[in-house]
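In the current project phase, work has continued on tokenised descriptions of protein folds. One protein thus recorded appears below exactly as we store it.

——
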Amino acid sequence: MVYELPSLPYDYSALDPYIDEQTVRIHHDKHHAAYVAGLNAALEKLERARSDNDTALVQHYERLVAFNGAGHVNHALYWQNMGPDAGREPTGDLAARIQRDFGSFEACKIEFTQATVSVEGSGWGLLAWEPMQGRLITLALMNHQNSFMTGATPLLICDAWEHAYYLKYQNRRADYVAAWWGLVNWHDVARRFMATARATAMV
């Protein structure tokens, strides 16, 4: 099975003025594409290492699969989580769950923002559904996969790698995250929330 780079669900310029067209082009066509290519290459080499019973190389390529695979999945979610004419507030069952788990939408927004801005080095801010307790949580992921909670389902993700914002915001990650809220596609987040919450019978 070969992984492919998914097309953007909107034009390259659609996220202006929050994220500029050049950043979107480089981010999607170069960075995201590189993770897809890296994932396919790592999977091919992993299969060869397993055939050769080379345990050390198996472990090496498993790490590369995890890194590049998470990079691909996270980026695919990131693009879907944003959109033009978005950025309002969640409604319905998602809004009610946010109120229940965080106390208010503003409290959730603050916690998510802090998680994203405070990522050490490169990584992601994440809102996820944690099925064991049946609640929403925020996570700060280092790289693409470190600090992820096993079993949690990602619902909303913000890219905190510098390539996501450096052309427009330079080193001002906090400014980028503040602007990014104006792009959140809450319909997409709510759809993901309802699907995973129903699957665990927690709504």
